[in-house]
Amino acid sequence: MKENTLRKLESYGQSIWLDYIQRHLIESGGLQRLIDEDGLSGVTSNPSIFDKAIEGSDDYDEAIRTLVREGKSVKEIYQALTTEDVGRAADIFKPVYDRLQGRDGFVSIEVNPHLAHDVQGTNDAARRLWKILSRPNVFVKVPGTLEGVQCIRQLISEGININVTLLFGLPRYRMVADAYVSGLEDRAAKGLPIENIASVASFFLSRIDVLVDGMLEKSGDDDAKRLRGQIAVSSAKIAYQLYKKIFAGDRFLKLADRGAGTQRVLWASTSTKNPEYHDTKYVEALIGPDTINTLPMETLEAYRDHGDPASRLEDKLDEAYRNLEILAGLGIDIDKATQQLEDEGIEKFNKPYDSLMSNLEEKRNNICLAEAC
Asked: Which domains does the chain have, with CATH numbers?
């Protein structure tokens, strides 16, 4: 019998999470099978995923009808549907969390994407979700904007697990890692426990190549041709080196002595957008210890079918650094590009959130008309 390539990733220290959630997957036992058969150890969600789950199925119709009858607002309906799915998924992953002593087995839920530049709004939303879900193996997702960095420090200091989302650039990653460490220091200074606090930094990949490849195609330079499809992986490899340096430094080791865990890096946006690239491109190149790869269902199934597990995250590091140097020499400012991706990423979550809220409003109105509520 063929060895499951997804399960083999565990031997290289990498966790596989699913970038997808739907009520049917939970209720049918499909999520438990992915845990049992593929070694799945986490799930992430976002407004786009919930938009597809709720609008693309009838799984939620009866729950929506019940919530409307209870007089819930559209935002309350959205919150009830999403927190129920995340809570039930977290309960399924709790044995994984316990077995791995709190290092894995997490399910993530995102704050309203419209709060990306609102510090107080994000903090309040994160606290509310954390309180509603009330489970140790939940992550609240906060975008890695400049405002989000402030939130990360504050929320970590309050003992709330944070998944930092929408990270594209290396300078911002340094700020996010520093915010995590600072939050732990703030908490430790108050004499509060830090050993059960978790965080991940989600580095988005394929979108980097989509944007930068378009810039490179405008150049006829041979270096530009060679760099196509290389910048996302190169950036991720360098981010991992930063991770190792930060969390092996004296500042963090003082916290580690008190039981603190590192803020692991998570590879996100790992479905291949360019059909010319291999469908497991953003999995194969980035396998290494203390990392997470969060895969949409199609990429997970592709890797199970024809993945080639091997630790490659620290291969060709010199080339990774050189690629970014050559990119700069071609006049492409990677920091400016990643800021553009952050701005676009927020809008890409705002749109499905707004679409879902609009559709829920329509459903609510139709039910009220039919039932005279």
From this structure: 5-211+232-313+346-371 (3.20.20.70)
